[in-house]
Design brief:
The protein is α/β, with parallel strands linked by helices. The protein has a 5-stranded mixed barrel. A 5-stranded parallel β-sheet has the order 7-14-8-9-10. Strands 17-18-21-20-19 form a 5-stranded antiparallel β-sheet, with helices on both faces. A hairpin with a 4-residue loop joins strand 11 and strand 12. It binds flavin-adenine dinucleotide and 1,4-dihydronicotinamide adenine dinucleotide. The site of 1,4-dihydronicotinamide adenine dinucleotide has 23 residues, from helix 6, strand 9 and strand 17.
């Protein structure tokens, strides 16, 4: 039996970051993970690096460049004789990025002296983990503290079989060998819109079937409405209130029957992506036997400090409550490592940003106007459109807007919502501002370089007080 200060189960952005931070704080640390790359080799980084954030963003970037070359280069006076898509190279580029970054974690583990065990971990007690190693032998690891960071997997449906060929989950949709002629996506959430955009830009006729009648129901309504219009204009078909009744797969086709406001509809596609949410990986941990509390949806129950009901056992990331986001998982990892080392780790759940990497990107932090109304909080709002921003014109990307919501009395920023180019980068400014309890006036009185997209944030802050200059 090997003994450590800390054992981490899972090496995604929650687990690997927790392990590195523990090691930085002088704790002997082992990280147990069962992920393999597309060639079957053990690979660190979890879903995010192997089959999530990184490969999807690599394909979003490549497909966006292709789409621009095809549809928008001529606007800049650039004529391309003939444009060809080389999907094999696009996929190799994505795989190489994944390999570089997952290999980077291996190096970081070595540098920080984190021990990596490739295998399946299960709890024997609050101090011991049994690990089934690659060669099917078992090992037992003992640790004073355990961090569970086992992540999540695509939600499954009894009546839809993911065969990995015609019918795929997000992992399958990152590895198509050819552009599907017709692709249906069940689920109009983050994965449906991002991966639907990738294949639509590359030439597939994509239809997204969403059960809910409201598009992106949890985001700021005016941003959702504009994003809905823009994505459809780009060619992404989105059917709202579409309830799937039947999926039948033949060798070459998938027949889908769904019902929407216009009645029963039948479509035939050559590929189907099922993206209806993700489920926490709490099974397989032997949690029941050791008395680990799990809620009815499978999330491991934790308090505000990510402590489970078992003494010395913590849980972080997708396997616990809160948004299923890589940066949330990592922050919880740091927070728990610091607590174990006797420090006071902390995560501010009020300032976790969300980004949907469509084009234009959608990014937000804090409350929506709908939430503020529901909570009877009086607020002011300032909106500034990118069509009045010089840099956006230079880039030929004038769609979208910035919206700032601030407290009616004290002007404290309560929420910021962006639809526009590089929204993912722009949101960082207001997260820092919100961490310092800034007011919209603080942003309004901050000098922003010209010409930049960030001037739209500045002007939205001025607009909160009715004094935007360029609208
Ligand atoms: P994971 O990354 O899921 O890692 C858990 C690890 O634990 C895995 O390696 C798993 O194999 C391993 N494991 C599970 N059980 C065991 C066990 N019993 N023993 C040993 N090992 C085990 N989030 C963002 O913030 N930005 C994005 O752009 C983004 N894009 C995404 C795109 C896609 C297609 C998908 C699917 C997800 C995306 N996400 C994104 C979500 C993000 O990937 C997750 O929130 C994040 O990976 C969660 O991190 P984690 O450490 O909790 O778990
Ligand atoms: P999601 O929760 O974002 O969206 C699922 C959608 O499917 C919802 O709109 C829901 O109404 C719909 N739906 C559910 N069941 C359905 C059914 N039977 N028929 C039709 N529609 C149905 O989940 P998604 O897209 O699978 O992503 C999972 C999570 O992964 C995200 O919530 C997010 O946490 C994370 N993620 C984050 C990304 C980012 O940060 N950019 C990118 C991709 C994933």
């Amino acid at each position: 039996m090997q003994r450590y200060d800390v054992a981490v189960i899972g090496a995604g952005p929650g687990g690997y970051v927790a392990a590195i931070r523990c090691a930085q704080l002088g704790l002997s640390t082992v990280c147990i993970d069962n992920m393999r790359d597309h060639n079957g080799a053990p690979s660190l980084g979890g879903v995010c690096l192997n089959v999530g954030c990184i490969p999807s963003k690599a394909l979003l970037e490549s497909s966006e460049q292709y789409y621009r070359a095809k549809n928008h280069f001529a606007d800049h006076g650039i004529q391309i004789g003939s444009l060809e898509l080389d999907l094999d190279t696009m996929m190799s580029r994505k795989n190489n990025i994944v390999k570089t970054l997952t290999g980077g974690i291996t190096t970081l583990f070595m540098k920080n002296k984190v021990v990596w065990l490739h295998g399946q971990g299960r709890l024997i007690s609050n101090k011991q983990i049994e690990v089934v190693l690659q060669d099917d032998t078992t090992d037992v690891v003992e640790a004073s503290s355990i961090i569970i960071a086992t992540g999540s997997s695509p939600a499954t449906h009894d009546d839809i079989i993911i065969d990995g060929d015609r019918v795929v989950d997000s992992t399958g949709a990152l590895t198509f060998e050819a552009v599907p002629k017709k692709l249906a996506v069940i689920g109009g959430g983050v994965i449906g819109l991002e991966l639907g955009s990738v294949w639509s830009r590359l030439g597939a006729k994509v239809v997204v079937l969403n059960r809910g009648k409201q598009f992106l129901s949890r985001i700021e309504p005016s941003i959702a409405a504009e994003a809905y219009r823009l994505l459809q204009k780009q060619g992404l078909g989105i059917k709202l209130g579409a309830s799937v009744k039947e999926v039948k797969t033949t060798k070459k086709q998938v027949a889908i029957v769904y019902k929407d406001a216009e009645g029963e509809q039948k479509i035939q596609v050559d590929r189907l992506l099922v993206a209806t949410g993700r489920s926490p990986n709490s099974h397989g941990l032997n949690g029941e036997a050791v008395g680990l509390n799990v809620d009815d949806k499978g999330f491991i129950e934790v308090n505000d400090h990510c402590q489970t009901n078992l003494k010395g056992v913590y849980a972080i990331g997708d396997v616990v409550r809160g948004p299923m986001l890589a940066h949330k998982a990592s922050e919880e990892g740091v927070c728990v490592a610091e607590q174990i080392a006797g420090q006071s780790g902390h995560v501010n759940y009020q300032t976790i940003p969300w980004v949907i990497y469509t084009s234009p990107e959608i990014a937000w932090v804090g409350k929506t106007s709908q939430q503020l109304k529901e909570e009877s909080i009086e607020f002011k709002e300032g909106v500034f459109p990118f069509k009045a921003n010089g840099r956006a014109h230079a880039m030929n990307e004038t769609d979208g807007m910035v919206k700032i919501l601030s407290d009616a009395k004290y002007d404290r920023i309560l929420g910021v919502h962006i639809l526009g180019p590089h929204a993912s980068e722009m949101i960082a400014e207001v997260i820092v501002a919100m961490e310092f309890n800034a007011s919209a006036e603080d942003i309004a009185r901050t000098v922003h370089a010209h010409p930049t997209l960030s001037e739209a944030m500045h002007e939205a802050a001025l607009a909160v007080d009715g004094r935007a200059i360029h609208t």
